């Protein structure tokens, strides 16, 4: 099962706010991740979704994704059905805490 976890990273003296997306477990060595800058034109959920979409594209993962707030500083995205020819889509409906 493909799972993406996103986490908010607050600003520092050197960098602005960011979102880090990573896989929940490493199957081949170190866990992979991607970090994108916060887009102030988007909502919190949309920023987390953008990070998850970028990570899924990096990993070449396709399918439909459901997401839920993890109750802390991020979201959990779970692939609800991968398909070879499916376009990458995300379900914005809240599914509850993961």
Give an overview in words.
With 98 residues, this protein is α+β, with helices and mostly antiparallel strands. The protein has one domain (3-94). It contains one helix and six strands; from the N terminus they run E-E-E-H-E-E-E. The chain has a six-stranded mixed β-sheet with strand order 3-2-1-5-4-6, covered by helices on one side. The protein starts with a strand and ends with a strand.
Task: Describe the SSE topology.
Layout (H helix, E strand, L loop, with lengths): L2 E7 L8 E6 L9 E5 L6 H16 L4 E6 L4 E8 L7 E6 L4
Parallel strand pairs: 4-6
Antiparallel strand pairs: 1-2, 1-5, 2-3, 4-5
Gist of the model:
The protein has 1 helix and 6 strands, in the order E-E-E-H-E-E-E. The chain is of the alpha+beta class and 98 residues long. Strands 3-2-1-5-4-6 form a 6-stranded mixed β-sheet, with helices on one face.
Protein traits:
single chain; disordered C terminus; alpha+beta; 98 residues; 16% helix; 1 helix; 6-stranded mixed beta sheet
Mean pLDDT: 81
N-to-C SSE series?
EEEHEEE
What is the global morphology?
globular
* Radius of gyration, in angstroms, nearest whole number: 13 Å
Oligomer: single chain
Question: Structural class given helices, strands, pairing?
Answer: alpha+beta
Give the terminus-to-terminus CA distance.
15 Å
For the report, how would you describe the main beta sheet?
6 strands, mixed
Helix content: 10-25%
**Topology, number of strands:** 6
How large is the count of helical segments? 1
What amount of the residues lies in strands?
A: 35-45%
Give the tally of structural domains: 1
Q: Name the strands of the widest sheet in spatial order.
A: 3-2-1-5-4-6
Low-confidence stretches: 84-88, 91-98
């Amino acid at each position: 099962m493909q799972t993406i976890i996103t986490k908010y990273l607050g600003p520092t003296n050197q960098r602005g706010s960011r979102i880090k997306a990573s896989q929940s477990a490493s199957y081949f060595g170190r866990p992979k991740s991607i970090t994108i800058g916060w887009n102030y034109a988007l909502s919190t959920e949309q920023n987390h979704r953008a990070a998850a979409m970028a990570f899924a594209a990096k990993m070449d993962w396709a399918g439909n994704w459901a997401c839920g707030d993890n109750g802390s500083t991020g979201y959990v995205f779970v692939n609800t059905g991968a398909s070879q020819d499916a376009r990458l889509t995300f379900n914005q409906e809240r599914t509850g805490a993961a």
